[in-house]
Every structure is written in structure tokens, then in C-alpha cells.
Specification:
By secondary structure, the protein is mainly α. The protein is about 75% helix and about 10% strand. Strand 1 and strand 2 (about 60-65) form a beta hairpin.
């Protein structure tokens, strides 16, 4: 077995940190996906609604908005969620690329003596 140098340990630690961030990101992405679905459902409901005024949730309270204003607001919020999701996906790809580089280096040195795969 190869000796673990300080640089090797730093690479292993970096991989672990990236892996933790990847799990956090994926949890955030799942939450954003659910939120996006909820906003799409709300948008659809507003389109078919025949009411003049609707209650719109702002934080922990409701505000009365015209159907048109609520629809605009939902669509703006949905766009923000989608933009945030794209940013998170880009970060996820960046992490996967960096992990791939670290795996290549670490597996080249340690072969079967290290396991960097998810279980």
C-alpha cells in the first residue's frame, strides 16, 4: 500500500467536502423542484379561476391581490426559482467535474485501497 502524503490527505479531504456539498445541493434541488411544481400548479389554478381577487401568501400572511397581479407575481417567482435551480445545477456539475479529477488522482495512487463511490 502506498503511503498517504499530506497532499493525498488534502485531496481526500477536498473530495469529502465536495461530497458533502453535493448532498446539500441535491437536497436544495429537490426542494426547488417541489416549489417549482407548487408554483406551476398555482399558476394553472389562477388561469382557470374566475374570481376577481385572490389571497396571495406573502411570508406568513395573506394579501388580497387581483387575479392578474397574482398571476404576474407567481410567474415572476417561478422565473426566480428556475434561475436559482439553474445556478444550483451548474454548481452541481462543477462539483462532479472536480470530484472526477480527484478520483482519477486518488485511484491512480491508491487503486483498490480507497473507496470514493457512493453506497
Amino acid at each position: 500500500m502506498s503511503e498517504v502524503t499530506w497532499d493525498d490527505q488534502q485531496a481526500i479531504n477536498s473530495f469529502g467536502k465536495l461530497n458533502n456539498r453535493l448532498h446539500e445541493l441535491r437536497a436544495e434541488l429537490n426542494a426547488k423542484k417541489k416549489l417549482e411544481e407548487d408554483y406551476e400548479d398555482a399558476s394553472n389554478e389562477l388561469m382557470i379561476s374566475d374570481e376577481e381577487e385572490v389571497r396571495y401568501v406573502l411570508g406568513e400572511c395573506f394579501a388580497h391581490l387581483s387575479n392578474e397581479d397574482a398571476e404576474t407575481r407567481v410567474n415572476q417567482d417561478l422565473e426566480e426559482i428556475q434561475a436559482s435551480t439553474q445556478t444550483l445545477k451548474a454548481e452541481e456539475q462543477q462539483i462532479l467535474t472536480e470530484q472526477g479529477k480527484l478520483k482519477k488522482v486518488l485511484y491512480a495512487k491508491f487503486k483498490d485501497n480507497i473507496n470514493l463511490e457512493e453506497e
